[in-house]
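FIELD: query
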Amino acid sequence: MAWGSGTTAPAVGDTVLATETGRKAITSYTDGATGVEVTTTYLAPAEGNGSLAELGWFATDTATATADTGVLIARVLYPGGTWVKDAGYSLQLDRTDTFA
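FIELD: result
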């Protein structure tokens, strides 16, 4: 899971974040109802500080801790616009996927 400061609207052809500033492995996976998977990424107070405007989830074995690696499976803008995270906050990001 990655975050960045880019504010360009997500598009179907996106392959990377507009401006990736950090990434972290998914913290946990939880099975929901049949066909539902919830992934959670927790950013501790010392992690991910700075402008959060976009979020992206990357997959495949090519996704590493290095920016712009892996296959971008989802990119969204941070709800409510750019937020500046600092060490006074932790952040839990949950993504729910439903497979039919």
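FIELD: remark
Strands lie at 2-4, 20-23, 28-31, 36-43, 50-52, 54-59, 71-77, 83-85, 91-98.
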